[in-house]
Write a structure and sequence with these properties.
Layout (H helix, E strand, L loop, with lengths): L7 H11 L3 H4 L1 H13 L6 E7 L5 E4 L4 E5 L5 E6 L4 E7 L4 E7 L4 E6 L4 E6 L5 E5 L10 E4 L4 E6 L4 E6 L5 E6 L7 E7 L4 E6 L4 E6 L4 E7 L4 E7 L4 E6 L4 E6 L4 E7 L4 E7 L4 E6 L4 E6 L4 E7 L4 E7 L4 E6 L4 E6 L2
Antiparallel strand pairs: 1-28, 2-3, 3-4, 4-5, 6-7, 7-8, 8-9, 10-11, 11-12, 12-13, 14-15, 15-16, 16-17, 18-19, 19-20, 20-21, 22-23, 23-24, 24-25, 26-27, 27-28
């Protein structure tokens, strides 16, 4: 199978995740962002479009400027053009989507299909279905993440209380990693490709499990807030952000010490969190407030609260365009936020 080579300036988008600042690696994007800030210094994040498309799991592919969103209960993903904010295609699935992840370097999209127990692999350049991957272990599949450095796929299997590890290129099984105990519900998963650490939120145990991707073993378990769900990482700062749905906060974990260094109050029932590593901004969906909190990573403070659609759940960030895509489960729309 041949893999379409991504243009050099877009390959740099992925290299920021592996090295340092996007602005130093993408001078064109940096110049655009600086120009936007110079002409709109007083601008604040705001919704610029609302797209009827679906309100399920969502991911953004920075290499193509396309967004993929689950259309539950329909067995399909809607494909949104980031340039026009319109639906430009539909990708068939087996339904019951519980996670989406993107590898913009290899131009691959991964969607968890819960009851099928498989992850569908999609070619990001053509939106064609390439395969259905059955990660090791049994039962349904939930959250999914990909390490763009090692090309490893990580899939949470809640029923079996484990993280399944597979080769993302071949779907060959690599390992199964037991996590926490039978009372845990594992919701979020993310990977830091710079440190090769995997983070899994354990909602009913109020913890985050830290996994060493090199040895496929649990390093430690970090206590966080009440009912942690969404989790994401900033590879540039080695900070991990956890949305605690039960107490309206975001826990900030130091990836170096595996300890909570800050707790940030946000809105009601925060469910998901995403990071823009290029700007060190963190975005949190508040399902009970119908808002998105914008956090400045340098100060761990909320700098804006953006009203979106009803019951916002998952969200995605395109670090090149500084656009945030929010899936609203209450009306099956996607709110598009511009953050100048």
């Amino acid at each position: 199978m041949s893999i379409r080579r991504t243009p050099l300036h877009l390959r740099h988008v992925v290299l920021v995740v592996l090295t340092a600042s996007l602005t130093s690696l993408l001078p064109v994007a940096a110049a655009t962002a600086q120009s936007s800030r110079a002409t709109a210094q007083s601008s604040r994040p705001t919704v610029i479009a609302t797209i009827p498309s679906g309100g399920g799991v969502i991911t953004a592919n920075a290499s193509t400027n396309r967004v993929y969103v689950g259309q539950d209960p329909l067995p399909s993903l809607a494909v949104i053009s980031g340039a026009t904010n319109t639906v430009v295609g539909i990708v068939p699935t087996q339904g019951f989507h519980t996670g989406l992840a993107t590898d913009p370097f290899r131009n691959r999209i991964y969607v968890s299909q819960q009851f099928a127990g498989q992850v569908r692999v999609i070619d990001g350049s053509t939106d064609a279905v390439l395969s259905d991957c059955s990660p090791p272990g049994s039962g349904g599949v939930n959250g999914v993440a990909v390490n763009v450095s090692t090309n490893r796929l990580y899939v949470v299997r809640n029923d079996a209380q484990l993280v399944a590890v597979a080769d993302a290129a071949t779907c060959a099984p690599v390992a199964t990693i037991p996590i926490n105990g039978p009372s845990a519900a594992h919701n979020g998963i993310t990977v830091n490709p710079r440190t090769n650490r995997v983070y899994v939120s354990n909602r009913f145990n109020n913890t985050v499990t830290v996994i060493d991707g090199a040895t496929n073993t649990v390093v430690t378990t970090v206590p966080v807030g009440n009912e942690p769900r969404g989790v994401d990482v900033n590879p540039a700062t080695n900070r991990v952000y956890v949305a605690n749905i039960g107490d309206g906060t975001v826990s900030v974990i130091s990836g170096a010490s595996n300890t909570v260094t800050a707790t940030i109050p946000v809105g009601t029932a925060p469910v998901e969190v995403r990071v823009n590593p290029a700007r060190n901004r963190i975005y949190v969906t508040n399902n009970g407030s119908n808002t998105v909190s914008v956090i400045k990573g340098a100060s761990n403070t909320v700098v804006a609260t953006v009203p979106v659609g009803p019951q916002p759940d998952d969200l995605a960030v395109n670090p090149v365009t500084n656009r945030i895509y929010v899936a609203n489960t209450g009306d099956n729309t996607v709110s598009v936020i511009a953050d100048p």
